[in-house]
Amino acid sequence: MADDEVIWVSSIVSQRTHEGMVQVQWGGKACQLPIADARQLGMQFLEAAEAAESDAGIFHVLTAKVGAEEGIAYTVLQDIRNYRNERWKKQGESDADPTAFPK
């Protein structure tokens, strides 16, 4: 993997505020996040990874075991994702799209 494709995450101390921050570098770009935002982003990555693993399993069962066409399986997955996102919003686990980068 080329260096511009690698995501680098490191801890820093802000020269302006003297508070801990998390720096993210990727493809020549960089941003600094307050600790709370970095934790929120980390949780979003974990939630998305879990959802992706679950989605792949559901897709496999629908196509390989049930015999559904791929288009149908993708439609079912979208319905499941919509349901999942609505539940996250209602439960307060995420105030926004769970894949969105914090501001």
Short descriptors:
19% strand, alpha+beta, single chain, 103 residues, 51% helix, 3 strands, elongated, 2 helices
Structure write-up:
With 103 residues, the protein is an alpha+beta fold. It has one domain. It has 2 helices and 3 strands; from the N terminus they run E-E-E-H-H. The protein has helices at 35-65, 70-91, and strands at residues 7-13, 20-26, 29-34. A 3-stranded antiparallel beta sheet has the order 1-2-3. Strand 1 (7-13) and strand 2 form a beta hairpin. Helix 1 (35-65) runs antiparallel to helix 2. The longest helix is centred in the middle third of the chain and has 31 residues, at 35-65. It is elongated. It starts with 6 loop residues before the first strand and ends in a 12-residue tail after the last helix. The model has no long low-confidence stretch (mean pLDDT 89).
Task: Kindly give the count of domains.
Answer: 1
Approximately what portion of the residues adopt beta-strand conformation? 15-25%
How much is the radius of gyration in Å? 18 Å
Flag low-confidence runs: none
Number of helices: 2
- Report helical residue fraction: 40-55%
Oligomer: single chain
- Approximate shape: elongated
Structural class: alpha+beta
Q: Total number of β-strand segments?
A: 3
Brief sketch in words of this structure:
The chain has 103 residues and is an alpha+beta fold. It has helices spanning 35-65, 70-91, and strands at 7-13, 20-26, 29-34.
